[in-house]
Amino acid sequence: xxxxxxxxxxxxxxxxxxxxxxxxxxxxxxxxxxxxxxxxxxxxxxxxxxxxxxxxxxxxxxxxxxxxxxxxxxxxxxxxxxxxxxxxxxxxxxxxxxxxxxxxxxxxxxxxxxxxxxxxxxxxxxxxxxxxxxxxxxxxxxxxxxxxxxxxxxxxxxxxxxxxxxxx
Amino acid sequence: xxxxxxxxxxxxxxxxxxxxxxxxxxxxxxxxxxxxxxxxxxxxxxxxxxxxxxxxxxxxxxxxxxxxxxxxxxxxxxxxxxxxxxxxxxxxxxxxxxxxxxxxxxxxxxxxxxxxxxxxxxxxxxxxxxxxxxxxxxxxxxxxxxxxxxxxxxxxxxxxxxxxxxxxxxxxxxxxxxxxxxxxxxxxxxxxxxxxxxxx
Lengths: 168, 200
What we know:
Oligomer: heterodimer
Shape of chain A: globular
Number of strands of chain B: 12
CATH class of chain B: Mainly Beta
CATH class of chain A: Mainly Beta
Radius of gyration of chain A: 16 Å
Number of domains of chain B: 1
Order of helices and strands of chain A: EEEEEEEEEEEEE
CATH architecture of chain B: Sandwich
Strand content of chain B: 35-45%
Helix content of chain A: under 10%
Shape of chain B: elongated
């Protein structure tokens, strides 16, 4: 029997990589939680983004609503019919790790999948905080999660840990 | 299978001797995050209640997916309240997809905003989700502060909304929590799960 809150898998990058993927995710839990502590490699555009897709689906099945603040102003954004769920304000710096979390509700159910995301970055003078609700319009259970940067790679030491949460 | 008795003359061979009652099994490590109870919507009721919440934890967390049976297109909030107060005071920050808004209620009201659950019109299969954290819920000397993080994105059928906020009520210990649908009832796919988080 699965535990109430259990680590499913964890990845720590030993070399820079453009993406991290969790596959063959068990359907034994109620929700999933992914904790991502990431830093970009340097050089070129020394930032990385973090695009979230499920089940290797690159169709226009994603949308998101974002609430953000950068230390001087607040904002809210929305995307519909997108091919991924992205962050709106944040990119991952090479200077300090950023903390991101993804709560994926009823991921194994037969309804569309909603995810709550948080982003926290502070670089001693700049930074971003975001709260995001993302929608994946698929009734198929989520068995693969991919976080990908299309700008720069994730640096050595970047960690991603996936947990399963089970209800009574 | 349990061994309940051993008779004279019984023969055992190739047995492993253990110096621990674990006898080769891994040690049981109690979880710090325990499931207390869960409930699902019925389609005919707009109320979910957790009663007799034990006091043995440091914090409580409720995770939910919710959808209203209402088809009017109105914003279907998820309200909630506990046993310990009839008046709540709050601050919140939310985004509609185009505007970020902060708001507060200082006059007290009989419930708290816990989430969103738009109805079925045009958004079949889409549920609002939320996480409610209640810190030091069993204290009888501290006011209770809640943290909510919830949202519902409907791919622009309705305005998406993501919100976070904190609420404050009285010093009474919390022993029950009730979630209610602002509009209609909770659909059968709605689920509410209550967890207890232990301190060190």
